[in-house]
Amino acid sequence: MRELLEPGVARAEWWRRLADGRIQCTLCPRGCRLRPGQRGFCFVRVAREDGMELRSYGRTSGMAVDPIEKKPLFHVLPGASLLSFGTIGCNLGCRYCQNWHVSRARDERLLGVRASPEAVARTAERCGCSGVAFTYNDPVVFAEYAIDCAAQAHERGLLSVAVTAGSILSPAREAFFGAMDAANVDLKALDPSFYRRLCLGELEPVQDTLRWLHEETDVWLEVTHLLIPGFNDAPEDVERLVAWFAETLGADVPLHLTAFRPAYRMRDVPPTPAATLRRARRQARGAGLRYAYVGNVVDLEGEATVCPSCGAAVVRRWGYTADRRGLDASGRCRVCGTSIPGRFALPPRTSGARRAAAEGDHRGT
Predict the structure, then answer these.
(1) Helix%, strand%, coil% for the chain, nearest 5
(2) Confidence class of residue 31 from pLDDT cuts 50, 70 and 90?
(3) How far from the centroid of its chain's Cα atoms is residue 183's Cα?
(4) Is the peptide bond before 72 cis (omega within 30 degrees of 0)?
(5) What pLDDT does residue 335 have?
(6) 86-90, 93-97, 319-323, 358-362: lowest mean pLDDT where?
(7) Strands 113-114 and 81-86
(8) 274 has which bridge partners?
(9) Are 266 and 250 in contact (CB under 8 A)?
(10) Residue 362 has pLDDT above 70, yes or no
(11) Helix or strand (DSSP H, E) at 361
(12) How far is CA 12 from the centre of its chain?
């Protein structure tokens, strides 16, 4: 059990002392340089005389039982439920954040629910969930808490899932994702200026995270890309993104092309038309991506998982409801026997970010 400095406050893992006496956070690319008492951009990491502390440990802004499809994860236990929770704060500043009331919160009183890592896992088990999802705000900013919750979940045979923008540095990256079984990473655009102007962040570290997850780990990876009218939805924008995706992540990593809804500081931007999503999906499939989906709209074809060999719909979806009867227990198409990449059975847990493939964990044919 991690020792707490006080209720809800733990020592942070990733920092260094600078020559001028300031404390630099080494968790994410922002690299905040802080005097004792100052908070980082994320709000929840605070410099101390003797290092840095995390002020959202064991405290959440709320919990809910969610379908796994809501994360979205389409190739992990279709139809399963996860205990989802978050804290407050974020290391990005997206102008269109749907969860801005917690990600941009500057009031610790919003952390009204106390939940130790053991209590989180116990609650997930009691609710009949298949795992725990760290979501609502980016779990990178409460990485120590998420890692400890994941360890408790694994002791009970539950999955751990991260929903993140992927803005994290090594070695924190290895520790954080080493505790996760699956992740959905939000790739916001393939344009550095988009990240700087709309997200107050950087593209390159996110690309590095995606490459590393795909090439160096057995964490199951899916990617979300939100299409915002007038900002990243032009055919040439999508073409550039899916070409990079196909070359870097390959044909079998699922890509979720989702609809924007007006929020936060971009309420004057219209919602994404369904036609734009369908066109983007055609572009993704044209680039060779086998598992391109549309989201935040009703589209039975665009939400179905289709066998790449015989064309059978192996998982049909209606919103957050999934019918996986087209798959057998090990994730093979019942029509032709092709293995669908994904994690379709709870695997035995082994240590480290690089894990041996377990029964029910397929990377393709």
Answers:
(1) 25, 25, 50
(2) very high
(3) 5
(4) yes
(5) 98
(6) 358-362
(7) unpaired
(8) none
(9) no
(10) no
(11) strand 361-362
(12) 21
Which stretch of 58-67, 172-181, 280-289, 351-360 has the lowest confidence by average pLDDT?
Answer: 351-360
Burial (CB count <10 Å: 0-12, 13-18, 19+), residue 1? exposed
Q: How far apart are CA 146 and CA 136, in angstroms?
A: 13
Three-class secondary structure of residue 184 per DSSP: strand
- Please give the Cα distance from 203 to 189 (Å, whole number): 8
Q: Which tokens in the block code for residue 281?
A: 């999906």
Residue 190 and residue 140: Cα distance in Å, rounded?
A: 21
Task: Quote the tokens at residue 78.
Answer: 């279709």
* 354 three-state secondary structure: coil
Contacts of 41 (CB under 8 A, 6+ apart): 30, 32, 91, 93
Percent of the chain past pLDDT 90, that is, above it, reads 93
For helices 235-249 and 274-286, the axis angle rounded to 10 degrees is 40
Mean pLDDT on 75-101: 97
User: What is the value of pTM for the model shown?
Assistant: 0.94
- Listed in sequence order, the residues at least 6 apart from 119 whose beta carbon sits closer than 8 Å to its beta carbon are none
What confidence score (pLDDT) does residue 2 get?
87
Average pLDDT over the chain, rounded to an integer: 94
Single out the residue of 167, 35, 154, 37 nearest to residue 89, CA to CA: 167
In this structure, what token pair is assigned to residue 323? Answer: 């019918």
Q: What type of residue is 327?
A: L
Alpha helices in 61-129 (DSSP H): 100-103, 117-126
